[in-house]
Amino acid sequence: xxxxxxxxxRHSDSCCxxxxxxxxxxxxxxxxxxxxxxxxxxxxxxxxxCDLQKLFLPFYLNILISIFGFSIAFNxxxxxxxxxxxxxxxxxxxxxxxxxxxxxxxxxxxxxxKFLKEKDGIGGGDFLLLGGxxxxxxxxxxxxxxxxxxxxxxxxxxxxxLNTSEELPLGSGLIxxxxxxxLVSFFELSLFGLVI
Length: 196
Prior knowledge:
mainly alpha
């Protein structure tokens, strides 16, 4: 049974990667932006699987996401970080605010949890991951990503029948939340009655 499960899992992974490549090609063509999107997808996919299977987020991949986020924002012409008219500043500064906001939101939650339970509740890789996500999407998009990511984490725990008494794959949930948020934004859909 385990061998069949792993074979199905490997084929579903291949289908997911291929479908994403086709989606990117059909919507963006073949250019540097498509390559960058595919590289980011690959990094997020590896992080998703690592966290889901081992509850581990490699430091260098998390840092790479932040470097991509800062570089893209500094270039300013590839992606656009939405400020929703709240502040008027450069894309690079919004990227920095997104990193700081993402990192410190989870850091603060962990400090509160540690104060109450006397042990860490969130791993350091999750801090860096949300910081990297913030560097890509900016500070104002973090709230819906955290909300969707939290629901996705619970959904993953139930579907994958994980031992929920110890740890949950928050990083995988945040990556799923980012993916859902970006798809909703890309197709200009309404999510929970809000147009994102």
